[in-house]
Amino acid sequence: MIEFRNVSKVYNNGTEALHNINLTVDKGEFVFIVGSSGAGKSTFLKLVMCEERPNSGQIIVDGVDVTRLPKRKIPYIRRKMGIVFQDFRLIDHMTVYDNVAFAMRVVGASARSIRKRVPYILSLVGLQHKAKHYPTELSGGERQRVGLARALVNNPSMIIADEPTGNIDPALSFEIVDLLSEINRRGTTVLMVTHEHSLVKHFHKRIIQIHSGEIVADTAEMQDTYAPPEQYASPEEAVENDDDYAEYDNEETYEPAPPVYQEEVAVAQEEEVLMPEPYQDELEQDADAITREILLEHMRVPEDDDEEVEP
Predict the structure, then answer these.
(1) H helices of the chain, where?
(2) In this structure, how many other beta carbons lie within 10 angstroms of the beta carbon of residue 77?
(3) Cα–Cα distance for residue pair 160/45, rounded to 1 Å
(4) What is the largest CA-CA distance in the chain?
(5) How far apart are CA 184 and CA 194, in angstroms?
(6) 69, 295 in Cβ contact below 8 A?
(7) Most buried residue, 104, 148, 217, 280, by CB count within 10 Å?
(8) pLDDT truncated to tens, each residue of the chain (311 aa)?
(9) Nearest residue to 237 (alpha-carbon basis) of 191, 195, 202, 209
């Protein structure tokens, strides 16, 4: 499903975010990616999603070499991925149903398909009774489940989750990973970046630890010596014992490259004139416009663009 061959990534400021990474993630695996802030975890995900390009090495995603993939073909690769964001990125003036349906409309799904698929996905994440609610009426855990439903609705072959539990209560984090585990059991590959050691300990999945841009531990290569921690009886017990993975708490910092969407967001802010009253409504609608641009950028196909992305 995913293969990195001697991949390195150096940002324009000279910081080497990843150094000579080699790994393979097979179809149907569930992988936790752990490490401190600045270790290179998010860069790893950005390379998989083609938001960044490596300076050297080769990246294979679902059988396709994406290292120098033409820009016009990138959305087709991303349509195989469901993205779950830490900050939810829901559109506040859309209902739960419409937030999920939006991802299908972007890829040109028929109205009939949307009416059939969206209720099924909402029932899968336990939110069928919230279909007509708005994001502001939901708890943090419910918002993230909407985000997960949106990621699932186009039936992706993999889910990429970058700190999906970072903005919700620790106990609710286990609900989200439970859902991801169930999705994984149905055959979907899951990559999840997390800082929550209790999740890593409670769910016995493959663990890849990144430190200073290098893979320093991979339980897939430690089958003879790795003994997973005892699974806790409850989320509360796991949270209480969340100090066993101190080796993940090394401190590293580097200045990451600007977000790939910075230019698009600036354009959206300049071009979209939103002047409702009161002023708070204007801010919320601006945020919605930015969210729409981000989601569209993931899946829409540019017209007449044959340019290849330079490494």
Answers:
(1) 41-48, 74-78, 96-106, 111-124, 140-152, 170-185, 197-202, 235-240, 262-271, 279-299
(2) 16
(3) 8
(4) 64
(5) 17
(6) no
(7) 148
(8) 899 999 999 998 888 999 999 999 999 999 999 988 888 998 999 999 999 999 999 999 988 999 988 888 888 888 889 988 888 889 999 999 999 999 999 888 999 999 999 999 999 899 999 999 999 999 888 998 999 999 999 999 999 998 888 777 777 888 888 889 999 998 999 999 988 888 888 888 999 999 999 999 998 876 544 444 555 556 556 556 554 444 444 444 333 344 433 333 333 333 333 333 443 444 444 545 555 555 555 555 544 445 554 44
(9) 202
DSSP string, 190-201: EEEE---HHHHH
In eight-state DSSP terms, residue 247 is G
How far CA 7 is from CA of 13, 19, 20, 139, 266, in Å, comes to 18, 7, 5, 40, 31
Q: Which residue do the tokens 């992305």 mark?
A: 309
Residue 142, amino acid: E
Scanning the structure block, which residue is given the tokens 């016009």? Answer: 72
Cα–Cα nearest to 45, from 175, 210, 266: 210
Q: List CB contacts of 154: < 8 A, sequence separation 6 or more.
A: 79, 82, 103, 104, 107, 109, 299
Q: Which long-range contacts (CB under 8 A, 24 or more apart) does 67-73 make?
A: 67/311, 68/308, 68/309, 68/310, 68/311, 69/308, 69/309, 70/305, 70/306, 70/307, 70/308, 70/309, 71/302, 71/305, 71/307, 71/308, 71/309, 72/301, 72/302, 72/304, 72/305, 72/306, 72/307
pTM, full prediction: 0.71
Residue with tokens 């994406």: 66
Retrieve residue 6's tokens: 């001697």
